[in-house]
């Protein structure tokens, strides 16, 4: 199974009940503020095509990094069969939020994101010698839902053509664990 992770960056201005008041919140680059509601949490998501017989489950852990100048996201699919780590920062020269994603499959991605109308839109380029199944680019949209969950929908570019990717709905799950083998 080719699982390519767009690491589920999520937009939203909704403050979750367990979040600290803004005045007490640790410093975070202002450009990364849309990600604050997801920091300090572990999220568990089931792929749309997941079944009880063949589950496909992603667990991601979000944290503030580098004194608030970055967000770090670790994730693993199906208890470590695949996983990766993302570092998200503001790039002043590009005037954009950028991220770098490193995978256990040996490929990497570099992407940008834009927050607009309550959604985050990402576009990333795949590189490296790892197994990305011929995928050369990924684009996604992430949207927070009123119930606190968020949905990620992706498309993959392969052989110059865009096609459907994955759809995953995530819920906060403090018991879930990111696992690397």
Structure notes:
There is one protein chain. Helix content is 0%, strand content 50%. The protein is an all-beta fold and 181 residues long. It has one domain (25-172): Lipocalin (Beta Barrel). Strands 1-2-3-4-5-6-7-8-9-10 form a 10-stranded antiparallel beta barrel. The chain is globular and about 45 Å long. The two termini are 17 Å apart.
Quick gist of this model?
This protein has no helices and 10 strands.
Summary keywords:
50% strand, 181 residues, 10 strands, ten-stranded antiparallel β-barrel, Lipocalin, mainly beta
Order of adjacent strands in the largest pleated sheet = 1-2-3-4-5-6-7-8-9-10
The helix/strand series, from N terminus to C terminus, equals: EEEEEEEEEE
Gyration radius over CA: 16 Å
Cα separation of the termini:
17 Å
Number of domains: 1
**Tally of separate helices:** 0
Proportion of residues in helical segments? under 10%
Please indicate the percent range of residues in DSSP E strands (runs of 2 or more).
over 45%
CATH architectural grouping: Beta Barrel
By secondary-structure content and strand pairing, the structural class works out as mainly beta
Number of strands: 10
Outline, from the CA principal axes?
A: globular
CATH topology: Lipocalin
Residue runs with pLDDT of under 50 for 5 or more positions: 1-20
Mean pLDDT: 86
CATH class: Mainly Beta
Q: Write the CATH homologous superfamily.
A: Calycin beta-barrel core domain
């Amino acid at each position: 199974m080719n699982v390519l992770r767009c690491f589920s960056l999520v937009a939203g201005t909704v403050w979750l009940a367990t979040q600290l008041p803004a005045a007490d919140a640790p410093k975070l680059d202002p450009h990364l503020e849309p990600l604050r509601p997801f920091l300090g949490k572990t999220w568990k998501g089931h792929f749309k095509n997941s079944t009880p017989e063949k589950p496909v489950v992603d667990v991601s852990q979000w944290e503030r990094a580098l004194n608030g100048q970055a967000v770090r996201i670790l994730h693993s699919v199906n208890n470590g069969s695949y996983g990766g780590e993302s570092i998200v920062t503001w790039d002043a020269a590009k005037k954009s939020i950028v991220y770098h994603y490193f995978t256990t499959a040996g490929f990497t991605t570099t992407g940008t994101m834009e927050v607009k109308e309550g959604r985050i839109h990402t576009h990333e380029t795949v590189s490296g010698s790892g197994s990305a199944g011929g995928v050369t680019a990924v684009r996604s949209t992430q949207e927070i839902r009123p119930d606190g969950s968020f949905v990620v929908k992706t498309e993959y570019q392969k052989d110059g053509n865009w096609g459907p990717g994955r759809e995953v709905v995530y819920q906060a799950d403090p018991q879930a664990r990111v696992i690397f083998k």
